[in-house]
Amino acid sequence: MNEKMVRLGQNRSEIRELFEYGKLLQEKGMDVCDLTLGNPTAKTPDWVTEVLSNGLKSKDVHAYTSAQGSFKARTVIANSLSKNGVDFSADSIVLTCGAAASLCGVFKTLVNSENDEIIALSPYFPEYKVFVEGCGARFKTVGFLGDGFTPDISALDKAITKNTRAIIINSPNNPSGKVYSKEEILDIANLLTQKSIEFNNPIYLVSDEPYREIVFDNTLLPFIPKLYKNTIICYSYSKSLSLAGERIGYIAIPTQIDEINDLYAGFLGSLRSYGYVCAPSLFQYMIENFREEYADFSLYENNTALLLEGLDKLGFVCNQPKGAFYLLVKAPNGNSKEFATRAKELGLLIVPADSFGASGWLRIATCVTKQTAENALILFEKLSRK
Questions:
Q1: Which residues are 95's β-sheet partners?
Q2: Could you tell me whether strands 164-170 and 204-208 are parallel, antiparallel, or unpaired per DSSP bridges?
Q3: pLDDT for residue 22
Q4: Residue 54 lies in a domain
Q5: Domain assignment present for 53
Q6: Final residue of a domain: which of 257, 288, 319?
Q7: Quick check: 209 pLDDT over 90?
Q8: When you count CB atoms within 10 A of the terminal residue's CB, does the N or C end of the chain come out lower?
């Protein structure tokens, strides 16, 4: 028996535990204000429903495709990405069963020894640790500076060693909603360029981008491959099209990347070893007929603004998200787990952000109804008086 896998199954995601607890209470008819799971609630665009309906009438829609995905779908993605001023081709795209599968395939490709390391910038999605350790590597993290979650470049410099294979970045960020600026990305890129030369080995920047389209206040989102050639994009349509349960995404590498042929073969081999045969054929058909029309994200932005204003009036300290659909709230006493437990007693489910590398903070998912956001503020008001 693989004891590591047994432990992974036993030590479940704190987010999922709280989410399932809330569902259980709801089934019993109890009132729950659930702000745990990043489950998109914006309506899936009409064109997606139309294309999928047409696709179901297609002759080969349920048949296998090539392991890397249909050539037409990969070409659509490559052409779209290339509009950002960096060249991509169909043969630098691999369609996957979502960003999680993409990340697992990338990490397994880059890791060749139990001494190899993948470094995440805090705050980060907790499953990164599972993905990295699952392929036999060491998972390291680097902290941040201040309540704006500025990357600590000095700490990153010290953390990188000859065994470092990649840095992972997530922008817009889960759990903070931070969007890394062009200057911050360039600082990281310049450091990775220096370290790659020093250790005579490319250090890749893995850009996890499921929230790429969800930005607020006309915030500019830098296109990372334009700033660092050894960037690997892991993308999902889960958030942009509100298709979280359908599991469709891709790995994309620019044609200028180092070791492109070995990387691409490695992605296919890694996904093969995990038992992925091909991405869902129906959703490949959707990509083949893609329209640049995404879900309406105004609900997320409005909920974020509503919660920020309300929490500020109650005396809570929050960060200022520029994208995604999360925000972080400081636990008043510095103990996020204790505060989350008190909130849970009132029927308010929020996630301690310690496992995200943000000790003392709590993550709130804003992808809920306006009514849920308003109810949450009522419960936060009760907590503020305790």
A1: 250
A2: parallel
A3: 58
A4: no
A5: no
A6: 288
A7: yes
A8: N
Can you give the pLDDT at residue 232? Answer: 99
Query: Binning pLDDT at 50, 70 and 90, where does residue 27 land?
Result: low
Which amino acid type is present at position 351? V
What is residue 58's predicted lDDT score, i.e. its pLDDT?
Answer: 85
- Contacts of residue 104, defined as CB under 8 A and 6 or more positions apart, other chains included, come to 131, 134, 135, 270, 274
User: Tokens 């699952």 label which residue?
Assistant: 134
- Is there a single domain that holds both residue 363 and residue 224? no
Q: Under a CB-based contact definition with an 8 Å cutoff, are residues 250 and 77 in contact? A: yes
For residue 89, the enclosing domain spans 60-288
Higher pLDDT, 30 or 381: 381
Distances (CA, A) of 356 to 192, 225, 229, 287, 319: 23, 25, 28, 32, 15
Nearest CA to 164 out of 115, 229, 230 is that of: 115
Q: How far is CA 72 from CA 172, 305, 357, 377, in A?
A: 28, 40, 40, 47
Go through the chain and tell me how many residues it has: 386
Could you tell me if residue 221 is inside a domain? Answer: yes
**CA triple 359-212-323, angle to 5 deg:** 50
The answer on 235 and 123 residing in a single domain is yes
